[in-house]
Amino acid sequence: METSSPQSSPAFGFVEWFRPGEYERTERLLPDIVKSGASYLRTHLSWAEYLAPGGEAWFDWLIPKLGREIDLLPCIHYTPPSLSRTGRSSGAPVVLKDYADFVDHVLTRYGQHFEHIELWNEPNNLLDWDWREDADFSLFCEMVGGAAYWARERGWKPVLGGPCPFDPMWLNLMGDRGVLGVVDAVGFHGFPGTWDSEEGSWGGWDMHLGEMRQVIDRHNPKAEIWITETGYSTWRNDEMEQARRFMKALQVPADRLYWYSFADVPPDVAVQEGLWFDPRHYHLGAVTHENQPKLLARLLMEGGLPRLRAVTELAVPNITTGAAPVVITGGSGFIGSNLAESFLAEGEDVMILDNLARPGVDQNLEWLRERHGRRVHPVLADVRDLRGIEGAFKDAKAVFHLAAQTAVTTSLVSPIDDFEANARGTINVLEAVRRAGHRSPVIFASTNKVYGALDDLEMLDEGDRYRPADPLVHKRGIGESRPLDFCTPYGCSKGVADQYVLDYAKSFDIPTAVLRMSCIYGPRQFGTEDQGWVAHFLIRALAGEPISIYGDGKQVRDILHVDDAVAAYRGVLAGIGKIRGEVFNLGGGPQNSVSILSVLAEIERLTARPLQTSFGDWRAGDQFYFVADTGKLQERLGWRARIRWQSGLSHLAEWLADHRFGGRQVLQQAVRVTA
Fold first, then answer.
1. Which residues have C-beta within 8 Å of that of residue 515, sequence separation ≥ 6?
2. What is the pLDDT of residue 633?
C-alpha cells in the first residue's frame, strides 16, 4: 500500500463496472464513491461494447465523467465478436496487433483522463487458446506485451491485470516472454472468505504476495504490486465481516488496493458465468444494488477509515470461561442499550448481538463499553445469518430478542428484506437457543401492528385527537384478546415472528414471552421519520428544522418512557416461570395517551419556539388510535408505567440537547429567540 503518515490514512479504491446506458446509475453512484474517501476507481472499457451500436457515445460520456472526479483505471478487455477467432467476445483477436491498436485509440481519445491503463490477463476469458501449448502462450504474450510496450512508449503506465486464481508459474512464464519487463504494475486478485478459502487455494496474503514479489523481482524489480480485485460477499448478511476484511486488506503489503465492488450486481443482470450462477456474485458491493449503504459504505461515508477502524475494533468479544451472559439481540439499539445498561449496572455480563445497521447505534455500544468495559461482549453479526450467530447463544442465561427491521415504510419498499430480518431472523434466534440445549428464556419485542389498522373501531373526533366511541376501549385501551389482523409487510413479518416465539414454548418447552409494544421513547434513541417519531420530532425542533406529519395529527398513541419499558422486560424475565408462552401488551396506557398534535404542542412549550409543520397523506397501515391495555402486566407481574409523558418528554429533550446539540443552552437559546 502507499505509505501514509500517522495523521493520514492509507489510500484505497473501488471496482465498479458501468454497463452501456447506465447514465442514471453512474450519476447516482459516483458521488458516494467519492464521499467514501476512495482515491481510485477501476472500471472496464470493453472493446466489444465500444464497437457495438451506441458504444462509442457511451464511453465518450463515461470516461471523462469518471476521470474528472477520481483517479481512474480503465481495464481494456473483450474482443468484438466480429474480430474474434471464434466469434465470441471471450476469444482472441484474429490479428493480435488489433488489440494494441485499440489500446492506442483509447489513449488518444481518452488518455487525458487517466495515468494508468490495465491490460488483459485473464486466460479463462480466452477459451479458444490452449495454454498448455507454448505457441498459444507466446501469442498471448505477444498481444499483451505489444500493447503494454506501446502504451509505455506513449507515456502511460501499463498495468498487467491479475488472473484469478493466482498462479506464480503463469506469471513467471509471462516474465520469460518479456511482458513483465514492459509494465509498471502487476495485478493480483484474491477473495479470502468468499471463494479462495473455500476452494482450498488460499494461502494467505503474505504467502501469495511474497511469491508474486519474487517472480516480479526476477524480471522487473521496479514494477509495483496492485490488488486489482479483492472483496467479501455479504450473501449471508455478514456485513461486519465485510468491514473487517476491508480493514485487513488495507494492511496488505501492496502498492494499491481496489475493493470489489462499490455496488451489488442488480439481480436481473447476468454475471460472466450466467444469471444467478452463484449468489455470492450478487452481494460483493459496499452498497446494495438499490444504493442502500451496507455497514462498510455507511461508516466510510460517515467518517472515513478512522470511523471504520473504530467500529471494527469494537467487534472483539471478551467472554471468559464460565461466563453466562444475558444476550440481547439488537443490543446496540435504543431499547437494547438501555436494557443492557440495567443488567451491566448490576454486575451482569451482557452479550450485545448487533449488526450496527442503524446509523448511530455504534455510539450506544461505545457508551456501554466505556461504562462497563470487559463485561460488555460485542458479537457484531446479523440475525439473518444463523451460522454467524449460533455461538452467541451457547451459554446464554437469558435472551432478549430486539433485533428487527422496524419501519412500516421500509417494509413496503423491501418486503423480502423485511421478512428476512423479522421472520427468518427470529426463527434463527429460536433455533440457536434450542440447539444450545439450555432452554434459555427468550423474551421477544413484538409490536401493536399485529392488531392491524383497527378500522372496525368507531372513532369520535374531539378536536385535536380521536377517541374510541366504545367507552370500555376508551377507559382501558386495546387488550391481548384483540384478534390478530396482520397489515403491511412489517405487521406480517413481526406477527409471524410473534407466533413462532409463542409456539416454541409449546413445541420445544423453551420459556418464551412476547411484549407487543406501543411507542417507546427516551435517551439513546436516534429517531427518524419512519421510526421513533417522538425523538424525531424533538430532534427536528431543536435543530430548527421543519416537521412532516402524515395524516391529520389527531391519531393517538400511548407513549412509554424507556425506563418503564426496561422495567417491563426485566419483570417478564423475573416471572418467566409463571408466564411462559404468554403475550403482553406494553405501552403507556390511557394515562399516557397522546395525539401527535398534543406532543407537538408540548414540544413547542419545551423549546419555546413555534414549529414548522406540514401535513401529508396517511401512510399504509397507520392506526387512528392505539392505546395498550396493560392490565395483564399489572395483574400478573405488578408492573405499571411510572413516568408521565410530559416529564418523560422533558427528560428526552434535555438528553438530546446534552448529547446531540452541545448542551442545554440550545433550550435556553430557543427561549431567547422567541422572546
1. 443, 444, 445, 446, 568, 569, 572, 583, 584, 585, 586
2. 97
Q: What is the pLDDT of residues 532-545, one digit of tens each?
A: 889 999 999 998 89
Q: Are 542 and 666 in contact (CB under 8 A)?
A: yes
Q: Which of 50, 110, 490, 625 is catalytic?
A: 490
Confidence grade of residue 126 (pLDDT, cut at 50, 70, 90): very low
- Single-letter code of the amino acid located at 121: N
- Which residues make Cβ contacts (< 8 Å) with residue 459, sequence separation at least 6? 466, 467, 468, 469, 624, 625
DSSP 287: B
Would strands 466-468 and 459-461 be described as parallel, antiparallel, or unpaired? antiparallel
For 34-58, write each residue's pLDDT tens digit.
999 999 999 999 999 999 999 999 9
pLDDT score, position 198: 56
The C-alpha atoms of residue 360 and residue 17 are separated, in whole angstroms, by 31
Measured distance CA(44)–CA(583) in Å, rounded: 56
The angle subtended at Cα 84 by Cα 82 and Cα 90, nearest 5°, is 115
Q: How far apart are CA 607 and CA 614, in angstroms?
A: 19
pLDDT digits (tens, 9 = 90+) for 387-434: 999 999 999 999 999 999 988 888 999 999 999 999 999 999 999 999
Q: Which long-range contacts (CB under 8 A, 24 or more apart) does 61-64 make?
A: 61/23, 62/18, 62/26, 63/110, 63/113, 63/114, 64/110, 64/113
- pTM (2 d.p.): 0.84
d(CA 435, CA 661): 46
Q: State residue 71's pLDDT score.
A: 98
Q: How far, in Å, CA of 449 to CA of 484, rounded?
A: 9
Q: How far is CA 524 from CA 224, 245, 332, 562, in A?
A: 48, 29, 9, 9
Q: What are the structural domains, with CATH classification, of the chain?
A: 13-311 (3.20.20.80), 314-674 (3.40.50.720)
Q: Determine whether 490 is an active site residue.
A: yes
Q: For 422, which DSSP code?
A: I
Residue showing cell 513483465: 180
pLDDT digits (tens, 9 = 90+) for 76-116: 988 887 887 777 776 778 898 999 999 999 999 999 999 99
- 621 Cβ partners below 8 Å, 6+ apart? 408, 449, 452, 453, 487, 488, 490, 491
Pick from 313, 440, 311, 319: nearest CA to 377: 319
